[in-house]
Amino acid sequence: MIEILPKFIKNSLNQNDNKDNLIEVIMDLGRRPEARFPDGPIYLSNKVINWIDLDQCIKGVGNFTEENRAGIERTLHRISCVRNREGNIVGLTCRVGRAVFGTINIIKDLLENNGSILLLGKPGVGKTTAIREIARVLADEMEKRVIIIDTSNEIAGDGDIPHRSIGKARRMQVSQPEFQYKVMIEAVENHMPEVIIIDEIGTEQETFAARTISERGVQLIGTAHGNYLESLIRNPSLSDLVGGIQYVTLGDEEAKRRGTQKSIIERKATPAFKVAVEIHERYSWVVHENIADSVDQILQGLNPITQIRSFYGSEKTIIKKFQSSNYAEQYYKESQTNDRLANYDKLSTMLPFNSYASHLKEPKVKSKIGLQKNVCSLYTFGLSYQYMEKLFGKFEIPIELTRSLGQANTILGLRAQIKNNKKILYIAKNQDKKVFTVGNNSLNEILRTLNFILQFYSYDTIQYDTYSESKYEDQLEVQEEVRIAIEKIVIPTKNIVELLPRTSIMRNIQYQLISKYALKAKLVGKEPNKRIRIYPNCTK
C-alpha cells in the first residue's frame, strides 16, 4: 500500500519505527497527510495534499464501487474515497489490511460445535480480521466447505484471485451492495456449502436471508455493527438476527403468577445465530454462549451471564464469567455494580392499606443507614410501602426501608407472591440477598417476622404486645370482620368460619357481637395466633 502513496509520504512512513503498527493513512485535499497508529495519529509532512497527489494514488488502485471503496489487487488493503458534490475525489482513507493468524484460538471451541456465530463490535475493532481467520480455520483445519460472501472485497482482497489468507475457502463477489442478500441465497442453492461467512449484515433483506440460510441447516458466521447484544435487540433492522421482539398481553392470572405487568416484551422466534461474540478490545472478547437465553434475560430486565475471554501474546486464554450490563467495564474494573436493578422496583405489587394503618403515627425522621456489614436494608415485595413506613416509625425499628431492590440486602414479601416470582428469586440468589416471607399481611405476622430479621442482624427486638392491646387497634374493623363473616358466609352457606387472630380485648368485642346473632363460637389456637371459630346453627 505504501508504494501507491506520494513519494514524500512514502519516505516519511519508511523512516517511522512504528510503521508495522500502521492502521491507516488519511489524505484530504488542502490538508497535511496523517497517519493513524494504535497510540494516536501523527502528521507525516508539513506539505498539504493537492490534486496531483490524489491522482497518483487513484491510479494505483482498482475502480471505486458505489460504496466508494477500492482495493489493491491480491492484497487486503482498502482504499476509500470522499467525493464532493460534482463527484470528484477530494479525500482518501488508505486502510491497512492484515491477515493475523491465531487470533481466533480464543473461540475455536465454539467453531468446533458447529453453531452459528455473530460477531459484534464498533468499526475498526477487528471483526473482519477475525472472520478472515475463521474462514481459513474452517476450510483448512476443519476441512469444511466454506463460501465467503465478499460484498466489498474486504475479506479476500481485491481482484479475481482471493488472498491466500482465507485458505481453501471460496469467495463469491457481489456486483452491488444491495444485491448481497441475493448472493447469500444463491450460494446455498448452487454450491452446497457447510459454512457461509458474511461481513456486515446491515439491512432487513440481509437479515431475512441470514434467517433463511440458518433454517436450511447451514452454519453462519457473520458480523454486525453494535457494541452490545442489547443494541442489536433495539435495532429494528437487525433484531430478527437474535429472534426479534414482540409485545404480548397476558391474562390477569398469568400476569399475577409471573409477577409482571400485563403487557410485556418477549422474543418472537428462534435466533438465526446460536452464539454472539462482542469484540470490545482486540484481546478481550465477550461471549454469549446461548443468544436465546441472553435475549430472554435482557427482555425480562435481567443481566445475562456472559464469558469474558482474554489472551495476551502466547499465554493461554483466560475465561471469566460475569453478570453485568457493561461487560467490558466489568472486566477491567472487576466491579459488581448492577445498573439495571433500579428497574426491578416496578415489580412490586402493593396491596391496599389495611384500615388500621391510618391510626399509626407518622414515622419519626431517622438518619439514613448506609449499606455496610451487619446493617439491614429492607425491600418489601407485595406489602404496602406506605404502611410499612408508618409501622417502622411507630416502633422505631432500626432497619432502613428502601424502594430500590438494588440498594437492599434483605427482601420481605408475601410468601405466595415470592414463591411464584422467578425474577425476585433469581436476583436474590445471584446478588446474595436474604429473603424472608410472611403468610399474610396481618400486623402480628409482619411484626413477628421483623423480630426474626432483627435477631438475624443482632438488633434488639421490639415489644409489640402492649401495642396490640392499645387504643390504636380499630374496634370498627374488628366488628366489621365479624359482621361480614356471619352475614356473607356463616348464615347463607352454613359453613364454619375462623376469624383473624386478635388480642384478648378485641376477641371480647367479637364474642359480644357473635352472641347477638345467636351463634356459637369457640376459641382456637395459641398465642399469638388465638382466634375465634364461628359455627352455624345447624352444626353441633
Automatic annotation (TrEMBL):
<dbReference type="InterPro" id="IPR003593">
    <property type="entry name" value="AAA+_ATPase"/>
</dbReference>
<feature type="domain" description="R3H">
    <location>
        <begin position="476"/>
        <end position="538"/>
    </location>
</feature>
<keyword id="KW-0067">ATP-binding</keyword>
<dbReference type="InterPro" id="IPR027417">
    <property type="entry name" value="P-loop_NTPase"/>
</dbReference>
<keyword id="KW-0547">Nucleotide-binding</keyword>
<dbReference type="GO" id="GO:0005524">
    <property type="term" value="F:ATP binding"/>
</dbReference>
<dbReference type="InterPro" id="IPR034081">
    <property type="entry name" value="R3H_AAA"/>
</dbReference>
<dbReference type="InterPro" id="IPR045735">
    <property type="entry name" value="Spore_III_AA_AAA+_ATPase"/>
</dbReference>
<dbReference type="InterPro" id="IPR058670">
    <property type="entry name" value="PTPase_dom"/>
</dbReference>
<dbReference type="InterPro" id="IPR001374">
    <property type="entry name" value="R3H_dom"/>
</dbReference>
<dbReference type="Pfam" id="PF19568">
    <property type="entry name" value="Spore_III_AA"/>
</dbReference>
<dbReference type="GO" id="GO:0003676">
    <property type="term" value="F:nucleic acid binding"/>
</dbReference>
<keyword id="KW-0934">Plastid</keyword>
<protein>
    <submittedName>
        <fullName>Conserved hypothetical plastid protein</fullName>
    </submittedName>
</protein>
<dbReference type="Pfam" id="PF25516">
    <property type="entry name" value="PTPase"/>
</dbReference>
<keyword id="KW-0150">Chloroplast</keyword>
